[in-house]
Automatic annotation (TrEMBL):
It is found in: Secreted. Residues 132-389 form the Olfactomedin-like domain. The keyword Glycoprotein applies. One of its GO terms (cellular component) is extracellular space. It holds the Pfam family OLF. GO terms for biological process: signal transduction. Residues 57-91 form a coiled coil. Keywords: Coiled coil, Developmental protein, Disulfide bond, Glycoprotein, Secreted, Signal. It comes from Sapayoa aenigma (broad-billed sapayoa). InterPro entries: Olfac-like_dom, Olfactomedin-like_domain. Belongs to the OLFML3 family. Residues 1-21 form the signal peptide. This is OLFL3 protein.
Amino acid sequence: MGPWRCLLLLPLLALALRAQQQQFMEYVERRLTLLEERISQWHDQSSRYSTELRDFKNQVLGMLEAAEKEREAMRTEVESTGVRVDRLEREVDYLETQNPAPPCVEVDETLMEKQVATAKQRKNEKYTKLTDCSDTIASVRAMKILKRFGSTSGLWTKDAAGSSEKIYVFDGTANDTVYVFPRMREFTLFSATRKAARIKLPYPWVGTGHLVYDGHLYYIRQQGPSFQVIKFNLANKTVVDSSVFPAEEQIPVFGLSPFTYIEVAADEEGLWAIYATKEDEKNICLAKLDPASLDIEQMWDTPCPRENAEGAFVVCGALHVVYNTRLPSRSRVQCVFDVSGTLAPEDASLVYFPKRYGSHSSMKYSPRERQVYAWDDGYQIIYRMEMKKKMEV
């Protein structure tokens, strides 16, 4: 090939080379553009994924916070449910001790007048003993302070005749609910009343002169100027009988316990009522009660003064009156009246009780245990008595 032909081919080769170079550049640009698009798409997807991940994280945190709130609300609800269950248990205990509808107790004026006349006729007659009990108190052998429960005034006792170990608590001097503890242990260990059953009485009581005797509660109800002795069956929670006490113009029986008008007591001989009237307002009176009918079998005027008396109980047919001072000091049995005449007042021992907190609002003698259950300024105390034969005193 000649030189001139080479010269002619050079421009053609240059054009072809330029065309290929242009195509290559266009190809590279297309690949770069595609790569940029993919990088942009990846960036968009990455941003979207980051946003979704952040939104998911925020959602999970919100759900965790909601779950924590629900857990706290559930814990609060469980605690509230526990409180409601405890309240329900107390309400169930209360319903279990509810009484049927109170019976209608009407006062028969004619019968009351007849009882008053009969009692006055038998007043101060010679008493025929029912048992051979001839003991009297020689001293207080021991004192045990159990606990402090309830108001400053009240009454606690066991059944004076039965074998039950239940503890009956009358808190205050005017109420209608009696607390019942199954044993002394429960009463001693627990300060609250959750462990106690409750007996709601059909009529409120007055004073601290009540008594549990042979499965029945004998308690005092005030109805206007008169006072009723209510006999309440503790087993079936019903009123068995009631009687207007056949004494006119009654006054508080103890000078230092103005809330008690009748003190129902029990001893080896049975049931007694300790009271006072305006007819002989300086001294205390005593009556023998029939536990079955609540009739007054016999009445006595005693030489024991009301002034500075804070309580009384009967032991083997002898009334023992406990005295104190207006500013509480040491209580002592300072007057004894024996209905059988076996023990002369001047021959009785002067019995002192250990110094305690204030003054007794109630003192209940248990003939089967030979001890006194006392309520002293809110403290529950047991006095164990040392006994002697009357002829030895």
